[in-house]
Design a protein that fits this description.
The complex is a heterodimer of chains A (654) and B (74). Chain A has 654 residues and is of the alpha+beta class. In chain A, 40% of the residues lie in helices and 24% in strands. In chain A, the strands form 8 sheets. A 6-stranded antiparallel sheet of chain A has the order 20-21-17-22-23-24. Chain A has a 5-stranded mixed sheet with strand order 10-9-8-11-16, with helices on one face. Chain A has a 4-stranded antiparallel sheet with strand order 5-6-4-7, sandwiched between helices. In chain A, α9 packs across α13. Chain A is globular and about 85 Å long. The termini of chain A are far apart. The model of chain A has no long low-confidence stretch (mean pLDDT 89). With 74 residues, chain B is an all-alpha fold. Chain B has one domain. The longest helix of chain B has 19 residues. The mean pLDDT of chain B is 89. Classes of the chains: A alpha+beta (654), B mainly alpha (74). At the A-B interface, α10 of A face α2 of B.
Chain lengths: 654, 74
């Protein structure tokens, strides 16, 4: 079992038993364009490349290409040479910017880790955590206050370990390894660049990565993929997409799904373009407006609803890509037989399967299999989580201009078909005697006495997609927005079986003081015993007492730092914040913070914008009272609305 | 990545802010009345995500439907 791979021209693999093997690797890139002999004439004499004429295919069809075999370190030089010969855009270059480690693994049919979870459990993990810098270091559960003893212990254990999982290793390892070098411990490592970027509307800060050659290092404190999937999830994914685990731990699910598509292309011998030429097609303004829309979201009426079913499509968007055959070359491409998306006028090829649909079909089926296994084997929970993320992001990448298999028309077709499917489902549910209370892209909330199984069966038959019953709520509350109309994604409800589902309220938000969250959680605990409208009236006083208890804590100055902490994610540097407020003050106090970093603070005085980022010395009672009141308004809504509903019912009866 | 054209909810919001421009010229009770109409239009703004109807027409249609429903209920 290969645990790690690193290197550039000479590659090294490390197996479970710490054996290192050296490999030589030559990477193959392809060039297509007019007068290919110009390239072979110019580059043919160079000793470190081999040139050959071949026929290869990209997703659009077969092409005559020049295959150039070279060392990975020379790829950049060759690209520059070809671009200079072809005045930048005359030649299309393929497979030039893909991960050479991944290409090597696919070419040599080598696997990273294993797809057997029992094998993965044999991995020896070295855990190290840094508290207060290097002052307190925890290694495999043992705490060290002396850095030199910690270094000896660490380098003693590293010999028998397969993976290092650290807490803040990316931040403190450079210093730790620097000191270790003075003690004679030689280790080869490199540091990747830090960067901030935007992903799904959120700014993310990726710190420098500390990569150790020969043993994969994962920093658990910064790795989203690790936090979702754990070591097992990450190693199975590493096996599935042939990307080293240290790299996988530091990339987004979107990049992971893109790497998966690259792996599938390499396996199928499909060339991957360096620069994509799938520009948006010209369309008339009506089609543009029709196509440039997201998922369908209905407008709920705020209120308490009883006996409500929630049905959700399983992986709706990836399923649409797979079952409606959406791929850059099948949407509005050359084809003999089409299916037409009525609303957009897009033609979808029917007689051949698109590459994107083919790739995602395997991913979708793999996830469905994992989902099944997860029900009987809880070790697969993390695995399911990472594959779920891959599927979730696979759709978004179709609209990303640099995605290798992205094309905006595919993105538009997916959302267009999604809207049609949800409308069709609403029609079916209404026909079957249900009232639609709310709908968000791939979920519907229905109340009524019809047969829910019949609804599900009909939707599946008529839409070709799988839909499942998420659950039945005893009651569900859709909350109002500030303007009084229903908020689209703010609700909570109690399911039969006891599960409380909450979305969008303060208890789930990170930018709300903890004391407000605790108050809402306590009230929700009270709500978990509610079985009828009368119960809401019954517990009203008790709920109010909870609120008043927390209010008193704030107003008597008894709230702890933990109660008062507010978190937010910095979206820019402080000087770029237009308004001067407590968040900006907190950011200015965290001099090392970068956009994407989480900042925690306590409000000392909102008016003078005074905050504390360490231990607080007093706090702004007015600010926290206002926040608590706002959270109470939210959570106490059913108590007021219930009274209104009961009055309405009595009015109807009389 | 991202959208280029405003969503139907944004279109309705834009109409609402246009309407609000003449608030200073009208009495307070009229403002409340108009706010009520705006909120009725917002309740049906989602219909714009499946049609190419003119947002101004959709605004009026939503208000008419809402008032008619209220009349029926009473």
């Amino acid at each position: 079992m290969i645990i790690d791979i690193y290197g550039r021209d000479n590659l090294y693999t490390i197996d479970l038993h710490h054996n290192r093997k050296e490999w030589e690797y030559l990477h193959e890139i392809y060039v297509h364009g007019p007068r290919l002999e110009k390239i072979s004439d110019e580059l043919g004499g160079i000793s470190w490349i081999k040139i050959e004429e071949k026929y290869m295919r990209d997703i659009y069809g077969e092409k005559k290409v020049l295959s150039i075999l070279t060392r990975p370190s020379k790829i950049k030089t060759i690209i520059e040479a070809i671009e200079s010969i072809g005045r930048k855009y005359q030649y299309q270059i393929y497979n030039a910017d893909i991960d050479t480690l991944q290409a090597f693994l696919v070419k040599n049919n080598l696997e990273l880790f294993s797809n057997n979870i029992d094998e993965l459990e044999k991995l020896e993990v070295l855990e190290i955590g840094f508290q207060n810098g290097l002052e307190e270091i925890e290694i495999n559960g043992e705490t060290f206050h002396n850095v030199s003893i910690a270094i000896d212990e660490f380098f003693h254990l590293i010999k028998n370990s397969n993976v290092i999982v650290s807490n803040h290793g990316d931040t403190f390892f450079p210093k730790f390894f620097g000191i270790a070098r003075k003690y004679g411990y030689e280790t080869y490592y490199r540091i990747t660049k830090e960067r901030s970027f935007e992903s799904y509307g959120r700014v993310v800060h990726r710190k420098n990565g500390f990569i150790i050659e020969g043993i994969p290092h994962i920093d658990a404190s910064t790795s989203f993929m690790y936090s979702e999937g754990g070591l097992i999830g990450l190693s199975l994914l590493s096996n599935f997409i042939s990307i080293p685990i240290w790299k996988l731990a530091r990339i987004t699910p979107g990049t992971a799904v893109s790497s998966y598509e690259v792996k599938k292309s390499l396996e199928m011998g499909v060339m991957i373009p360096l620069y994509k030429w799938d520009h948006e097609e010209p369309k008339d303004i009506d089609t543009f407006i029709e196509a440039d829309r997201g998922g369908l979201i209905l407008q709920p009426k705020p209120g308490v609803y009883w006996d409500v079913y929630e049905i959700d499509f399983s992986s709706m968007y990836p399923s649409i890509i797979v079952f409606y055959n959406l791929s850059p070359e099948t949407v509005n491409g050359k084809c003999q037989e089409f299916e037409i998306i009525e609303s957009l006028g897009f033609k979808i090829c029917k007689h051949r399967e698109g590459y994107l649909s083919k790739f995602l079909r395997d991913l979708l089926l793999h996830r469905l299999e994992i989902k099944k296994i997860k029900k009987v084997d809880s070790r697969f929970e993390g695995v399911d989580a990472v594959f779920k993320w891959l599927l979730l992001t696979s759709f978004g990448y179709t609209g990303y201009k640099n995605a290798k298999f992205g094309k905006i028309e595919v993105h538009e077709a997916v959302t267009g078909i999604g809207r049609e499917i949800l409308q069709k489902s609403i029609q079916i549910a209404t026909d079957e005697g249900f009232k639609v209370i709310h709908g968000i892209v791939d979920s519907l909330w229905l109340s009524g006495n019809g047969d829910i199984n019949s609804v599900i069966e009909r939707i599946e038959r008529e839409t070709r997609l799988q839909i499942a019953l998420e659950g039945k709520y005893k009651w569900i509350v859709f909350l109002p927005s500030r303007e009084g109309i229903g908020a689209l994604n703010r609700y909570f409800g109690l399911m039969y079986g006891g599960k409380m589902k909450i979305r969008g309220i303060d208890a789930r938000r990170s930018d709300v003081p903890n004391i407000c969250k605790r108050m809402q959680e306590d009230v929700l605990g009270l709500y978990s015993s509610i079985n009828s409208r009368e119960d809401f009236s019954r517990i009203k006083e008790e709920a109010l007492a909870i609120y008043e208890k927390y209010l008193e804590i704030i107003q008597m100055g008894r709230a702890t730092d933990e109660d008062l902490t507010v978190n937010f994610v910095a979206t820019r540097y402080p000087e770029f914040y237009l308004n001067s407020n407590v968040r900006k003050s907190a950011l200015m106090k965290n001099t090392e913070a970068k956009p994407g970093d989480k900042i925690s603070f306590i409000v000392i005085n909102e008016k003078s914008k005074t905050v504390s980022v360490m231990d607080s010395i007093g706090y702004d009672i007015g600010f926290y009272t206002r926040k608590l009141r706002s959270s109470w308004e939210q959570i106490s809504f059913p108590l007021k609305d219930n009274l209104y509903q009961m009055l309405l019912e009595n009015y109807d009866r009389n | 990545m991202g959208r280029n054209s405003p969503s139907s909810r944004m279109e309705i919001e834009q109409i609402a802010s246009e309407i609000r421009k003449f608030y200073r010229l009208i009495p307070l009770e009229d403002r409340e009345l108009i706010e009520d109409l705006i909120s009725r239009a917002k309740e049906m703004a989602y219909l714009g995500s499946v049609t190419n109807l003119d947002p101004y027409f959709l605004f009026l249609l939503s208000v008419i439907i809402s008032i008619k429903k209220e009349k029926q209920f009473l």
